[in-house]
Design goal:
14 helices, proline biosynthesis (chains A, B), four-stranded parallel sheet, homodimer, G-glutamylP_reductase_CS (chains A, B), NADP binding (chains A, B), 42% helix, Ald_DH_N (chains A, B)
Chain lengths: 421, 421
C-alpha cells in the first residue's frame, strides 16, 4: 500500500470513528482519559524502553542536543503527561452545551449547540508528550484525531498509541478515535493536509519553517500561528516601575516562547528616564539591544548595543536580543505595530485612560494588553484550562486555543409544528 | 494597468481604509448608512437610467428572463434597498463589545473584544440590490469591503458605488471603505480570491457552479455553502398534522431556496398513514416524487411518480421535485442524512423525547430542528437581524451568518503591572 492509500485509510477510519466519539457522553470520554492515564503509569518502564530506542537512533544520527532533550521521556515527563490527562478530565465538558435559546415571533425557539468539529489532525515535532496532550484534548472535545509526530519519536509514539487505543476500547469508544500515523515517510504529512473530506482542521505545532511549508500546500483549514513578533509600548504617561517590571519580564522570563517581547517601543517624552533604567536590568542578562538612532544615543555606553536594521523590526529573535525604538507617541507606536507585528500579542504601559482604551481598540492583534507582560498570552494564564495551540488568524479561534477551539456551534431549533408563512 | 495590478491597488486601498473603518464609532458608521440611503432615494431616477443601460445590453445579449428579472432595479426594489439600510442602522453595533472579563489568579483580568475582520470581499451575480445590502452590513460591522458584482450590472453598480462613496465621505469615513470593482474582466475575481494579504474573507453569493470554481482557486478563506440538500425525517411517533404541515411547507413554500427540503425520509411504521395524505397535498402543486421501491408501492397511483436513482439522494432540485425514502427508524434516517446531506438543515418530526434529543445531538448539520419547517433556516427568522450569507462549514460562522460573522474576537487584558512568575 502506498502512503497516499495508507493515509486515506487512516482518514476514512477517523471519519467513521468521529460519529461515535461525538455522541459519547461526558462520563465515557472522561473514563477513556483516566484509563489512558492508568495505562501510561503502569507501562512507564516499557515507554522508557521504547523511548531509549528513539534516543539511541537520534544520538547515532547526530541530532542536536536540544532536540534530543525534547525527545526524552523522563520519569518526570511521564508523570506530567499523566497529571495533564487528569487535569483534562477535571475540565468542564464543552460538548452539548446549548446557549441563547430564544423564542422568535414565528413561535420557534432558536439557539446554538456546541459540538465537536469532527476529525482533528495534529502535526508536530519529535516530542512524545504532545502525543498524549493532543489526544487528551481531542478525546475530551469529542473529536477523532490523527496524530503525526516527528519521525525521530516513532518507537515511543507507537507505544503510546497502543495505550491510547487500550483506554478508548476500555471505555467502549472506537479504537480509531485516536490514530498515530505509523510511518516515518514525510509524504504522510502532505497527504494529511490535502484530504478535507476526512480531516476538518489541522493544528500544526512546530517552528515557523514547518508551518510555512504546510501553508503552501494545505487545503484543510489550519489553526496556526507562524511567529510571535510581540511589542511592548511604554507610553509617555507610563508608571516607571510597571514599565521596568514588564519591560524586563516580557523579554527575559523566557526567550524561546512566541509571547516573548521582540520589540520595545518607547515614547520620546519618557525614553531618557526609562531606557537607561531598563538597560541596567537587561545588562544582568547580557541582552543585546538593537536600537534606532535615538535609542542608541540614549543608551550610549551599554555593552551590547547594535544599530537596528529594517530587518530587525520584522524578526522574531527567540533569543536574548531586543529591538528598541523611540516613537513620538501612541499613534507612531500603533503605526509601527500594525506594520511589523505578527498580530500575536502587544501591550501598552500607561496610566492614561484614553491611550489605554485606544490601544485596546485599535491594535489588531490576537491579544492586546494594558500594563501586563506579553508572557501572559497563554491558554492556562487566560483560564482556558488547556491549550492546543495559538492562532494569529482572525477566523474561528484567535489567540490561545483551548477545548472550545476544537468545537463548532450549530443552530438548534425547538419547534411545535411551525411552518414558514 | 493590467487586471492583477488594478486589483492589488484596490486591495491596498481597502487594507489602508480598513483601519479607519474599524476605529470609527457607531454614530459615524450609522451616519454613513443613513447618508447612503438618502442619496439612493434622491438619485432614484439616475439609478433607474443606469439600470436601463444594463437591461438594454442584457436583452440585446439574449440574457435569460429570470436573470433580467434579477437585474431589474424597479422603484419597489430601490425602496426595499433604502429600507434595508435603515434596518441595518437600527441593529445593535456588534463592534467593541467586551465579554467575559474575569480576574485570574495572577491578578490580570482577561476577556474578549468583538472587532471587525478587516477587509471583506463579496462576489455575486448581477443583482444590484446585493451591492447595497452587502455594503451596508460591512459598514455596520466596521469592515472595508470590495464588491464584485456580475458584469451585466456594471452601469448600475457604478452609479451605486458613487452614492456609497458620497455617504462614506459625508460621514468622515474613507471613500475606499467600500470599493466596487470597476471592470467586467473575469480575471478580477481570480485576483481577488488569491490576495490574502489584502482580503481577510470572501463571501461568495451565487450558484453552486460559481462557488465550486472559486473553491478550487481561493487562498483567501470563504464563508460559503455549495448547496442545500435538506432533509425532513418523519419519525414513527410523529404527530400526523405536524408531519403534513411541515412536509408540505418545507417543499412547497419556495422551490428555489437553499433551505427547501429535497429529501423526505419516513419511518416504516407511519409511512402507510402519512405518505398518501402528504401526496394529496403535493398533488395540488404537481410535485414530482422520486421514490425508493417501498414509498413507490405505498404511493401507487400518484400522478407524478418516478423511481429514485442513487443520484437523486445527492441532488438539490431547486424545483417541484422531491426524493422520498422509507426507513426503519431514526438510525437509518441519520445514516442516510450523514451520507447524503450537504450539512445545511435537517428536521425531525416527532413527539418522542429521546428521538428528538438524539436527532439534535447526532445530526452534523449547520441547523438541526425538531417539529419545524427547514424553511426557517434564515438569518431573519433566527433573529440575526440581517444575513450576509449561509455557511455549511464548521469553522468560524456556521449556518445563517449575520453581522457577527463579519467580526472576530480578540483577547483583551486589563493589567496593573503584573509580570509572569
Amino acid at each position: 500500500m502506498d502512503i497516499k492509500q495508507y493515509m486515506e485509510q487512516v482518514g476514512q477510519q477517523a471519519r467513521a470513528a468521529s460519529r461515535a466519539m461525538a455522541k459519547a457522553d461526558s462520563a465515557t470520554r472522561n473514563r477513556a482519559l483516566l484509563l489512558i492515564a492508568e495505562a501510561i503509569e503502569r507501562e512507564a518502564p516499557a515507554l522508557r524502553a521504547a523511548n531509549q530506542l528513539d534516543l539511541d537512533a537520534a544520538r547515532a544520527a547526530g541530532l542536536a542536543p536540544a532536540m534530543v532533550d525534547r525527545l526524552t521521556l523522563s520519569e518526570a515527563a511521564i508523570a506530567t503527561m499523566v497529571e495533564g490527562l487528569r487535569q483534562i478530565v477535571a475540565l468542564p465538558d464543552p460538548i452539548g452545551e446549548i446557549s441563547g435559546m430564544k423564542f422568535r415571533p414565528s413561535g420557534i425557539q432558536v439557539g446554538q449547540m456546541r459540538v465537536p468539529l469532527g476529525v482533528i489532525g495534529i502535526i508536530y515535532e519529535a516530542r512524545p508528550n504532545v502525543t498524549v496532550d493532543a489526544a487528551g484534548l481531542c478525546i475530551k472535545s469529542g473529536n477523532a484525531t490523527i496524530l503525526r509526530g516527528g519521525s525521530e519519536a516513532i518507537h515511543c509514539n507507537r507505544a503510546l498509541a497502543k495505550l491510547v487505543k487500550e483506554g478508548l476500547l476500555g471505555a467502549g469508544l472506537p479504537e480509531n478515535g485516536v490514530q498515530v500515523v505509523d510511518t516515518t515517510d514525510r509524504a504522510a504529512v502532505g497527504a494529511m493536509i490535502t484530504m478535507p473530506q476526512f480531516v476538518d482542521v489541522i493544528v500544526p505545532r512546530g517552528g515557523k519553517g514547518l508551518i510555512a511549508r504546510l501553508m503552501e500546500e494545505a487545503t484543510v483549514p489550519m489553526i496556526k500561528h507562524l511567529d510571535g513578533i510581540c511589542h511592548v509600548y511604554i507610553d509617555a504617561k507610563a508608571d516607571l516601575q510597571k514599565a521596568l517590571d514588564i519591560g524586563f519580564n516580557a523579554k527575559c522570563h523566557r526567550y524561546g516562547t512566541c509571547n516573548t517581547m521582540e520589540t520595545l517601543l518607547v515614547a520620546r517624552a519618557i525614553a531618557p528616564r526609562v531606557l537607561p533604567e531598563l538597560a541596567k536590568l537587561y545588562a544582568t542578562k547580557q541582552v543585546e539591544l538593537r536600537c534606532d538612532p535615538e535609542a542608541m544615543a540614549i543608551l550610549a555606553g551599554y555593552p551590547h548595543l547594535v544599530a537596528a536594521t529594517e530587518e530587525d523590526w520584522a524578526t522574531e529573535y527567540l533569543a536574548a536580543i531586543l529591538s528598541v525604538k523611540v516613537v513620538e507617541g501612541i499613534d507612531e507606536a500603533m503605526d509601527h505595530i500594525n506594520r511589523y507585528s505578527s498580530k500575536h500579542t502587544e501591550s501598552i504601559i500607561t496610566e492614561d485612560y484614553t491611550d489605554a482604551m485606544r490601544f485596546l481598540r485599535e491594535v489588531d492583534s490576537a491579544s492586546v494588553m494594558v500594563n501586563a507582560s506579553t508572557r501572559f498570552a497563554d491558554g492556562f494564564e487566560y483560564g482556558l484550562g488547556a491549550e492546543i495551540g495559538i492562532s494569529n488568524d482572525k477566523l474561528h479561534a484567535r489567540g490561545p486555543v483551548g477545548l472550545e477551539g476544537l468545537t463548532s456551534l450549530k443552530y438548534v431549533v425547538f419547534g411545535h409544528g411551525e411552518v414558514r408563512k
